[in-house]
C-alpha cells in the first residue's frame, strides 16, 4: 500500500466520521433543576414525537400518578421464563415523589412537542465515596396518554464525572435496562395506537382522590 | 441557636471579661452537644438499612419481643428498670451480632466495612486474541534486526527477527487480576495489578508479573499523591487503560515514546491535582527511570581490575595505557548512575468538558469534550551497552536492553550511555459518538561518548582504532492521529489510525508507517465486554546504521572472538506486514 492511499484512507475515515456526527440519542436542551437528590431536565427526542407539551399538571397530580407505578426488570431469555413470579416493586418512594414531582411539572411546562421530561433520583451508593444509587427515566404526554419509561432503577453509578474514563479503572455507567411497568388500577394502563404502553391519566385523575404532597 | 444568641447577648451586656465568658459558653455548648450525642445513641432503637435498593428503618429488637415486654411492664410483671435494662442489652446484642462488613458485585467483587473505612474491589481482565499475519519476503531476509531485535545469550547478542510469510496464532494477550479500594478513608486508595500474559512475539511463556502496586492519596484536591509502581503520566495513549482502547493493540510509535523509553510503568512518586475539580491538570513525577520492578543498582558498566579501564572482551579496545588488554574477564560492575532519577511533567487542559483518557466517545457526549496536553521527561544515563569493539555490546544490564528492544527502541542499543529528553503534545476531541485524538513525540538522545564508536583496531598489539561507525545515532520522532465513530451509540464503533515514526533522524529509509482500522462491538454497552476486529498494515524501513547489526561490524583483534563481517542487513528490503486481529475482552 503506497503512502498516498494510506493517507487518503485515514483522511476519508476522519472526514466521514466528523460529518456523520449527528445525534442518535436524546440530548438535553434545558436543565430544570439539579441538586444532590434530584436532577430534572428536558431532553429532545431523536425522531419527531408529537407530544402534547407543554402540559399543565400540578405536583400533586404528578405524584398521584407516579405513586401507583411499579416495575419488574425484564429478564433475558431463558431467565424470563423463571422471573415472572418476582413481585413488582414500587418505582418511587414517598419522599422521592416529594423531591421530583414539582420539577417534573416544570419540565412538562417547558418541554416542546419533541421533548420529554427526564429525571434522575440519587441516593447513597454502596461505596458512598464513589458511587450513587440512581433511579432515572423520563415522562411525556401525548393526549390522552402519559408515558413513563424507567432507564435505571436503583443502579450503582459513579458519582465522579471523571470516572467513566479513569485510567486505572474506567467505570462507564451501565446501559439502561428494560423494565416492565405496571400501574394500579390496571384498567388505566393501556396500549396506545403505536403499541406502546401508556396511562390514560385524565381518566385516572378523575377517579382518584389527589392528596397533597407532604414535604 | 437560641442558646448561642443568648450567650452572645450575655457576653455583650456583661462586665465580666468577654473572652472568659465566651470560652465558658463554648465549653457549655460542646458539653451539651456531647451529652445530646450520648443521649441520641442511647435512644436509638434501630437503623436505616438498604434492602433491595430501598432504605428501610429496622428496629434493633424483634417486634414480637418488644410487644411482650411492653405488655409485661404495663401489667407490672417486670419493673421499668428491668424493661430498660433488657431493651438496652437486646440492642447491644443486635449491634454486636450484625456483620460489620458487606459484600456485593458491581464491576468487580466488592467487600466493604459498614462505615466505608475499608473497601476491597477485586476485578479480572481477560483478553483472548487470534492473529493472522501476512508478511512479505523481506521478513525472511533481512527481517527486523534494528527496531525490535531479539537479544539472546549471556551477552545479549543481537538476533534478527525473521519469519516465513504467514502466521496464525492464538494469544492470551492480557490476563490481569486487580485488587483496589481504599484504606482507613476513601481518600487513601490502593491499587495492585498482577499480569500473567504474553505479548504476541514473546520469547518466553507468560509468568505472573506485578504491573502496578501503589497508594493514591486524594486528601488534598490540589495535591494528590501517587506513590509506588504505576503508569507514568506522560503519553496520552499510554496513560489510557488497556480496557478502554479503540484498537486491539497500541501502535508502535505510541509504545516507543514512553517517558523512560523502556516501559510505560516505573517506580516512583507522582503528584497531581484532581481532574474532577480543576480543568487544568498537572502531573509531576520522579522515578527510577528503568521500568517496573527495577532500579539503578541493576545497571552498571564493566570495568577492568584497574580503575578507569573499561572491561570487556580480551583484545577488545581501544585501550589507552595504562589499561592492559590482558586484564580480561575478571571485570567489575561499576555503578555510576545510581544517583540519577527520571523526572516527568505533564500538563493537561480540559478545554471543554472532560474527555478523559479513555479512547472513543463511549459516553456519547452531548456537548463537545476537548482537551490538549503536553509532556516532558528527562531520563539520564541509560546504559545501552558500551561500544568496546567486541560485538558492540558489553555486559550492560540485559533487562534494560531487552526493554528498549521490546518497546521498539532497538536502534539505540550499543551506543553507550544515553540521556533521553522526551517531549510531546497531544489533543483529543469527543462529541456525539465521534472522537479524534492525536499526539506528536520527540526524543532528544544525548550520547555521552561523543565520538564515533570504534568498530575495530589495527591489530591485537596496535590498539589504534581504524574502523569507526559510519554515522552517529540521531534523535527520534513520530506522531499518530486516530479517529472513531460509534455507528450504534455505546455498542458499535469504527475507528482508524495512522502512525508515522522515524526511529533515527540521522538515518534514511528507516521510517515506520502504520495504518490500523478497527471495528469494536461492546456487548454490554461499556468497555467491560467487547469484541474487536482490527486490520493493520505496517511498513518498516530497514535502512540505517545499527551497531552490531550493520556494516561495519565491530571487529575484535583476537580472531576467536571475531563477529564476522556479514551484517544482518546485508540484503536490503522493506518489511511489510498485514495483520488481522480478532479479540475478545472481558473486564469483570
Q: What can you see in these coordinates?
A:
- The complex is a heterodimer of chains A (215) and B (588).
- Chain A contains 5 helices and 10 strands; from the N terminus they run H-E-E-H-E-H-E-H-E-E-E-E-E-E-H.
- With 215 residues, chain A is of the alpha+beta class.
- Chain A has one domain.
- In chain A, strands 1-2-5-6-7-10-9 form a 7-stranded antiparallel beta sheet. A 3-stranded antiparallel beta sheet of chain A has the order 4-3-8.
- In chain A, helix 2 (59-67) packs across helix 4.
- Chain A is globular.
- The mean pLDDT of chain A is 86.
- Helices cover 15% and strands 41% of the residues of chain B.
- Chain B contains 7 helices and 26 strands.
- Chain B has helices at residues 2-13, 18-43, 63-75, 80-97, 236-239, 252-256, 398-406, and strands spanning 46-51, 54-59, 101-105, 109-113, 118-135, 150-152, 157-159, 166-183, 185-196, 208-217, 224-231, 265-272, 280-287, 301-303, 332-334, 342-352, 369-383, 417-431, 434-447, 454-457, 465-468, 476-488, 492-502, 512-522, 529-540, 575-587.
- In chain B, strands 5-8-9-10-11-12-13-16-17-18-19-22-23-24-25-26 form a 16-stranded antiparallel barrel.
- Chain B is elongated.
- Chains A and B meet through helix 1 and strand 7 of A and strand 5, strand 8, strand 9, strand 22 and strand 23 of B.
Amino acid at each position: 500500500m503506497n503512502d498516498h492511499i494510506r493517507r487518503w484512507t485515514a483522511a476519508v475515515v476522519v472526514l466521514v466520521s466528523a460529518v456523520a456526527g449527528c445525534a442518535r440519542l436524546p440530548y438535553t436542551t434545558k436543565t430544570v433543576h439539579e441538586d444532590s437528590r434530584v436532577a430534572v431536565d428536558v431532553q429532545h427526542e431523536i425522531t419527531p414525537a408529537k407530544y402534547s407539551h407543554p402540559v399543565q399538571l400540578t405536583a400533586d397530580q404528578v405524584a398521584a400518578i407516579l405513586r401507583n407505578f411499579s416495575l419488574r426488570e425484564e429478564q433475558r431469555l431463558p431467565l424470563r421464563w423463571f422471573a415472572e413470579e418476582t413481585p413488582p416493586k414500587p418505582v418511587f418512594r414517598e419522599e422521592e415523589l416529594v423531591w421530583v414531582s414539582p420539577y417534573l411539572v416544570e419540565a412538562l411546562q417547558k418541554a416542546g412537542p419533541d421533548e420529554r421530561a427526564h429525571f434522575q433520583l440519587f441516593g447513597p451508593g454502596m461505596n458512598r465515596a464513589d458511587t450513587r444509587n440512581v433511579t432515572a427515566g423520563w415522562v411525556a404526554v401525548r393526549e390522552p396518554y402519559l408515558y413513563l419509561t424507567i432507564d435505571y432503577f436503583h443502579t450503582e453509578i459513579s458519582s465522579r464525572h471523571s470516572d467513566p474514563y479513569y485510567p486505572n479503572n474506567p467505570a462507564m455507567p451501565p446501559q439502561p435496562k428494560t423494565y416492565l411497568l405496571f400501574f394500579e388500577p390496571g384498567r388505566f394502563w393501556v396500549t396506545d395506537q403505536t403499541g406502546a404502553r401508556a396511562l390514560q391519566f385524565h381518566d385516572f385523575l378523575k377517579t382518584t382522590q389527589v392528596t397533597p404532597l407532604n414535604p | 441557636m437560641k442558646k448561642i444568641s443568648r450567650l452572645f447577648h450575655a457576653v455583650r451586656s456583661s462586665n465580666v471579661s468577654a473572652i472568659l465568658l465566651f470560652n465558658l459558653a463554648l465549653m457549655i455548648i460542646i458539653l451539651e452537644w456531647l451529652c445530646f450525642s450520648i443521649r441520641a445513641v442511647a435512644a436509638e432503637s434501630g437503623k436505616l438499612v438498604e434492602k433491595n435498593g430501598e432504605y428501610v428503618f429496622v428496629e434493633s429488637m424483634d417486634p414480637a419481643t418488644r410487644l411482650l415486654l411492653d405488655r409485661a411492664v404495663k401489667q407490672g410483671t417486670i419493673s421499668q428498670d428491668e424493661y430498660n435494662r433488657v431493651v438496652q442489652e437486646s440492642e447491644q446484642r443486635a449491634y454486636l451480632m450484625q456483620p460489620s462488613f458487606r459484600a456485593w458485585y458491581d464491576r468487580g467483587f466488592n467487600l466493604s466495612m459498614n462505615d466505608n473505612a475499608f473497601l476491597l474491589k477485586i476485578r479480572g481482565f481477560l483478553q483472548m486474541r487470534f492473529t493472522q499475519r501476512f508478511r512479505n519476503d523481506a521478513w525472511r531476509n533481512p527481517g527486523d534486526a534494528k527496531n525490535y531485535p531479539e537479544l539472546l545469550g549471556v551477552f545479549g547478542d543481537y538476533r534478527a527477527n525473521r519469519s516465513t510469510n504467514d502466521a496464525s496464532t492464538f494469544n492470551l494477550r492480557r490476563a490481569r487480576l486487580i485488587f483496589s479500594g481504599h484504606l482507613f478513608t476513601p481518600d487513601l486508595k490502593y491499587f495492585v495489578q498482577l499480569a500473567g500474559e504474553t505479548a504476541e512475539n514473546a520469547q518466553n511463556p507468560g509468568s505472573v508479573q506485578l504491573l502496578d502496586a501503589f497508594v493514591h492519596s486524594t486528601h488534598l484536591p490540589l495535591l494528590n499523591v501517587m506513590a509506588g509502581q504505576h503508569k507514568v503520566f506522560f503519553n496520552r495513549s499510554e496513560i489510557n487503560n488497556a480496557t478502554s482502547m479503540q484498537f486491539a493493540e497500541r501502535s508502535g510509535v505510541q509504545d516507543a515514546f514512553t517517558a523512560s523509553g523502556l516501559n510505560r510503568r516505573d517506580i516512583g512518586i507522582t503528584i497531581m491535582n484532581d481532574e474532577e475539580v480543576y480543568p487544568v491538570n498537572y502531573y509531576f513525577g520522579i522515578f527510577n527511570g528503568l521500568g517496573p520492578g527495577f532500579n539503578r543498582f541493576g545497571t552498571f558498566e564493566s570495568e577492568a581490575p584497574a580503575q578507569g579501564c573499561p572491561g570487556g572482551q580480551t583484545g577488545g579496545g581501544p585501550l589507552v595505557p595504562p589499561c592492559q588488554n590482558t586484564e580480561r574477564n575478571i571485570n567489575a560492575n561499576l555503578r555510576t548512575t545510581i544517583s540519577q532519577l527520571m523526572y516527568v511533567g505533564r500538563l493537561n487542559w480540559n478545554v471543554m468538558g472532560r474527555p478523559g483518557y479513555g479512547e472513543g466517545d463511549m459516553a456519547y457526549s452531548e456537548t463537545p469534550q476537548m482537551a490538549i496536553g503536553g509532556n516532558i521527561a528527562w531520563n539520564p544515563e541509560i546504559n545501552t551497552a558500551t561500544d568496546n569493539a567486541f560485538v558492540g555490546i558489553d555486559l550492560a544490564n540485559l533487562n534494560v536492553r531487552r526493554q528498549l528492544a521490546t518497546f521498539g527502541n532497538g536502534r539505540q542499543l550499543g551506543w553507550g550511555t544515553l540521556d533521553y529528553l522526551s517531549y510531546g503534545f497531544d489533543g483529543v476531541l469527543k462529541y456525539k459518538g465521534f472522537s479524534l485524538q492525536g499526539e506528536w513525540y520527540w526524543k532528544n538522545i544525548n550520547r555521552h561518548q561523543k565520538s564515533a564508536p570504534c568498530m575495530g583496531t589495527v591489530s591485537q598489539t596496535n590498539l589504534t582504532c581504524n574502523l569507526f561507525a559510519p554515522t552517529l545515532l540521531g534523535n527520534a520522532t513520530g506522531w499518530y492521529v486516530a479517529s472513531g465513530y460509534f455507528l450504534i451509540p455505546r455498542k458499535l464503533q469504527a475507528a482508524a489510525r495512522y502512525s508515522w515514526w522515524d526511529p533515527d533522524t540521522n538515518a534514511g529509509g528507516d521510517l515506520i508507517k502504520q495504518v490500523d482500522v478497527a471495528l469494536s462491538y461492546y456487548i454490554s454497552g461499556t468497555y467491560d465486554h467487547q469484541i474487536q476486529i482490527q486490520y493493520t498494515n505496517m511498513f518498516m524501513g530497514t535502512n540505517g546504521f545499527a551497531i552490531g547489526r550493520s556494516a561495519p561490524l565491530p571487529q575484535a583483534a583476537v580472531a576467536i572472538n571475531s563477529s564476522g563481517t556479514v551484517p544482518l542487513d546485508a540484503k536490503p528490503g522493506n518489511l511489510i506486514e498485514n495483520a488481522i486481529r480478532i479479540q475478545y475482552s472481558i473486564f469483570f
